[in-house]
Amino acid sequence: MIRFNNVTKHFVGVKHPALEDITIDIGDGEFVFLIGPSGAGKSTVLRLILRDLLPTSGTVIVNEWETGKIPSGKIHLLRRSIGMVFQDFKLLSDRTIGENIAVGVEILGKPRLEIEKRVNEVLDLVDLPDKANYFPLQLSAGELQRVSIARAIAAGPAILLADEPTGNLDPETGWGIMQILKEINAMGTTIVMATHNDSFVNQMKKRTITMKDGKIHRDEEKGRYHLVKHEHNAHEHVKHDGEKETTEKNVKDGKKEDQHGRD
Amino acid sequence: MAAINSPWTHIRRTPYQSTAAILTMFLTFLLAGIVGLSSLASHLILTYFEQKPQLTVFFTEKVKSKSEADALIKKLQDTGKVASLKFVSKDEALVIYQQQNKKDPLLLEMVTADVLPASLEVTAVDPSYLKELEPVIQSSEGVEEVVFQRDVVEALINWTNAIRYIGIIFAGLLAFDSILILMTVIGMKIALKKDELEIMRLIGASPWYIKRPFVVEGALYGFIGSLTAWFVITGVVLWTRKGLLSFLGVIPSIASLLSSPTEQQFLVFTGLFFACMVCSGALLGAIGSMIASGRYVRS
């Protein structure tokens, strides 16, 4: 269970809040897309769930934890119940694929045999059973993202956060990743995925939270989302259920948020 | 074990930094070991001299037997500051004289018990009490002369304390320096692995799980440095053993310790010295790394 109660997040030196008075409830086992233009606050939401950030006001509750009240020495316990998949994979380059995945279980202090068993299980799940002894440099981007997912779920987290996991992948490979995430969700894991990919959102027909300017613009059970590239630049426009938004302001804010590493 | 959990891999991949850290630890423990042994030797020497009579009271002709010195003996015992008293009669004094000069018959001629005074050998509980005992003796009847070793003992105490304090200050400074250098070396290594540590942090590794390899690495530096220092010091002691015996051999405790390197006493002492050195080396290294990693690894 993830609950945001009137959460506002300000970053030091930035005039506009990254998140402004947002309230979200995500139940166990849900699959939720977080969409919106760059700078809308999607990554900030994920980082608040992971307790990589603290809200300026309001409360974030993840499972039984209120993130703002977790002592610094116990934050890792919260993070162990959350798997995280990054757009840039964040794999350890000097470790083999098997070792990268093992880290996720090793930190729990599990015995060696159990770790090996779990590594093989998740490698099977992401369809990379024969890559355990390869190094990240020897794998394609799609394979690396699958390894990243395998590491995130190796410890059996209740929640999986995915921050634009298909952002660096071609559509076909991206769909492969979506199928894996769907499979993981079917096993009962709550998935919150930030994405810009309209086709995934439109075809998966899952709960979709649209964010804009740090606020929740829409929250729909089977939402839709189209990304339209601007003719003159790569800035995004949001078209939501036939509604077209002009996003000059969003673009400005997005640039700001980029500078602070939020999106 | 993988790279981040393998301190040995860390050491191999940064040989110059590791060598600098180990050398610093070596120098620290070399000095600490020398200071420690010097302090122990000076303590043994001091103990030896403290156990020797520190003051000898020579009586006048009138005092010939112990009963005639009883008044002084009682007065001294009543002070509670006397560790031991030994009355040496005229006859005993002659035996001692003959013993000391047995190789020189000329000195033995014409010397009888009558010409030698009876004496009282006094050892204080603490050498610093000698000052207070002196007036008690001087004011007693039948006392001809007091031969007083206070100056020798005091000089010895001063030297011993000086060696100890200077050594402790230098060893302390070097230990502080070692911790700073270790913190810098470990800090640089952590900075190089910043991204990896960030990943570990985000996937739920506990602070200790992240710090542990660095702490073990620091402890290894301390262990290797102190072990090397122990080897060097032990080697030098063994090499100079005969020379040391020639001028420290008069001290029975040192003589028995150094008499044979295969004796149990020497082996036990060397073993204890080894344990002290490597344990404190590993501890110092671990503390330095703990401080360094604590500064960089936060939740």
Report a brief summary of the structure.
The complex is a heterodimer of chains A (263) and B (299). Chain A is an alpha/beta fold.
Largest sheet of chain B: 4 strands, antiparallel
Give the termini separation of chain A. Answer: 24 Å
- Indicate the radius of gyration of chain A in whole angstroms: 18 Å
Across the major sheet of chain B, the strand order is: 2-3-1-4
Unreliable stretches of chain B: none
Largest interface: A-B, 26 and 17 residues
Specify the helix fraction band of chain A: 25-40%
**Contiguous helical run count of chain A:** 8
Percent strand of chain B equals 5-15%
Rounded to the nearest angstrom, the radius of gyration of chain B is 30 Å
Largest sheet of chain A: 6 strands, mixed
**Distance between the ends of chain B:** 24 Å
- SS-derived structural category of chain B: alpha+beta
Strand-helix topology:
The complex is a heterodimer of chains A (263) and B (299).
Chain A: E1 2-9, E2 19-26, E3 31-35, H1 42-49, E4 57-62, E5 65-66, H2 75-79, E6 82-85, H3 97-106, H4 112-125, H5 141-154, E7 159-163, H6 171-186, E8 190-194, H7 198-204, E9 207-212, E10 215-220, E11 226-229, E12 236-240, E13 243-244, H8 248-259
Parallel strand pairs in A: 3-8, 3-9, 6-7, 7-8
Antiparallel strand pairs in A: 1-2, 1-4, 4-5, 9-10, 11-12, 12-13
Helix pairs in contact in A: 3-4, 3-5, 4-5, 5-6
Chain B: H1 7-13, H2 15-51, E1 55-59, H3 70-79, E2 82-88, H4 90-100, H5 105-108, E3 119-124, H6 130-138, E4 143-148, H7 150-192, H8 194-202, H9 207-239, H10 241-248, H11 252-258, H12 264-296
Antiparallel strand pairs in B: 1-3, 1-4, 2-3
Helix pairs in contact in B: 1-9, 2-7, 2-9, 7-12, 9-12
